[in-house]
Amino acid sequence: MIKTKHFYILSLLLFFGCLPENKSNSKFPNIIYILADDLGYGDLSIYNKTSKIKTPHLDQLASEGMRFMDMHSTSSVCTPTRYSILTGEYAWRTSLKSGVLWSYGPLMIPDEKETVAKLLQRNGYQTAVVGKWHLGLDWQLKTSYRENQVIRNDWGLITDYKEEIIDFSKNPTKGPTQVGFDYSYILPASLDIPPYVYLENEKFTQPVSNYTEGSNLEGDKDYDFWRPGPMAERFDFYDVLPNFIKKAKFFIDKAQKNDAPFFLYLPLAAPHTPWVPKEKDPYKFDAGIYGAFVEMVDYQVGQLLDYINVHGIADETLLVFTSDNGPYWKPHHIEKYNHRAAKHLKGMKGDIYEAGHRVPFIVRWPHRISQGSVAHGPQSLANFYATVAELLNTPSKALDSYSLLGQLTDSDSLKEVSPIIHHSSLGHFAIRDGDWKMIEKRGSGGFTPPTNLPTPLGERPERLFNLKDDPSENSNISYKFPKKLEQLKQQLDSIKNLNSISFK
Questions:
Q1: For residue 413, what pLDDT is reported?
Q2: Confidence label for 221 from pLDDT (cuts 50, 70 and 90)
């Protein structure tokens, strides 16, 4: 049944009164949000019994908390999902209507924009981001440059600058500390996108004095693929993942010395390309180098979980593990390894299809979330902001975020779920309402060919699926249910037209 507002308020009061007393003597839990990069729904054994990849630590984490079966990233690529997690709003409401920021795009989140990190800061949290940023930095430019060295999208948003006009002798002027993080240790973008350098509180940790010619540029962009570009001294692609876990431990250790809870946003750079596991022998792993890299993610997360347990803060920590979008796993990978990184789902990263944006989502909160519980029904990563706001008993300002707190703390709760919007790398839209999914255009809208298809004569461009009956999106049933199609089309248009913002 649907819970009433008064019931939730009473539940919150009871919850705060029953929380175990932590070292900070605070009523609020520590929060750790681990965001894998391009991890598939079917990579984890707990989601896919036929997975060729061993994920014992993540499976154990799921057994200790709640596993969501129908969670979705707000986009099927990196940057827009990260924007939504932190702001609670769809990135397509900004001028980023498709694609991602690249190497040198400026900070995407405006100074005045509310973020979950700012919200937690105001409520006494120590905040940190450690990992892949990919939301832009305000790089300092050389004194003279031409307009053709500034790269803008069709809506005027600067998505990149030409490498030759970046002044690497100077630190960026804006980054995570401007959007609510007390501490940051980041890689600017993906591990296959230059510059290859760590920044700590927007300062280079090493001079950007080297240059890599790239790796595997003519291959299938698997294995050790990365693009050419500037690189810091002694930068090691194979050490990035363990280095992030090391820095995460550093922050937690420091935070525990203060009388305040902490929020750690930990966006990993794996298993996104390059696939650079420490163990480089692909024949030892049933899913090759990719499988080895996913197992390295599982191991490193396990190291962090052990650290939390040893330091006695697991019971007072709300921990989330998820992925920013679906897997980079092509049909020939499936054929070669007989491993389905997206399980039964259609498509891959970038696509409007389910494999592009349905992601694993695990939440552990001892004594508050029932062990081994499973949540069904579609949800969105944008809901993190509103969930935190309700936890803090603070009104949510996020346009596209809805609290999951009631569902997390009462697995038997049946709560109305608002429709969610899917978005592909090329900007295709879809809407999900219950079992129904409507895709606005033909084609994948992403990485799987064909990306765009003409509409057959006499038909509408939209496609309609019932995912309960057809989870692999094989049968367009729009002609059978024209009223449902029209209803979803109107819902999508209504949500798209809500208070859109634009900035350049």
A1: 55
A2: low
H or E element, residue 230: strand 229-231
Q: Which domains does the chain have, with CATH numbers?
A: 29-417 (3.40.720.10), 423-496 (3.30.1120.10)
Q: What is the residue whose two structure tokens read 């990365």?
A: 226
CA distances from 462 to 11, 238, 426, 497 (A): 42, 44, 16, 18
Split at pLDDT 50, 70, 90, the class of 13 is very low
Residue-wise DSSP of 296-334: HHHHHHHHHHHHHHHTT-GGGEEEEEEESS-----HHHH
Segment 492-504, tens digit of pLDDT: 999 999 864 333 3
Model confidence over 103-121: pLDDT tens digits? 999 999 999 999 999 999 9
Q: How far apart are CA 391 and CA 387, in angstroms?
A: 6
Q: Output the CA angle 278-279-283, nearest 5 degrees.
A: 155
Listing DSSP states for 433-469 in one string gives ETTEEEESSSS-SSSSSPS--PPPTTS-S-EEEETTT
What residues contact residue 139 under an 8 Å CB cut-off, 6+ apart? 104, 106, 161, 166, 167, 172
Question: Is the backbone peptide bond immediately before 271 cis, with ω within 30 degrees of 0?
Answer: yes
As given in the structure block, the two tokens for residue 246 are 């090391």
Q: Exposed, middle or buried by CB within 10 Å (0-12, 13-18, 19+), for 214? A: middle
List Cα–Cα distances, 7 to 1, 22, 224, 376, in angstroms: 12, 26, 53, 22
pLDDT attached to residue 216: 86
Task: Please state the pTM of the whole predicted model.
Answer: 0.92
Residue 12 has phi, psi (to 5 degrees) of -65, -40
Residue 19 gets the label, from left (phi > 0), alpha (psi -120 to 50) or beta, of: beta
118, 248, 260, 283, 365 from 263: Cα distances, Å: 11, 11, 10, 39, 14
| Residue 56 to residue 201: CA distance in whole angstroms | 34
Q: Helix, strand, coil: what percent of the chain each, to 5?
A: 30, 20, 55
Residue 84's identity, in one-letter code, is S
Question: Could you read off the pLDDT of 410-448 as tens digits, one per residue?
Answer: 755 545 567 999 999 999 999 999 999 999 999 999 999
Residue whose structure tokens are 């300062």: 203
Q: Which of 69, 440, 34 is nearest to 241 (CA)?
A: 34
The three-class DSSP label of residue 429 is: strand
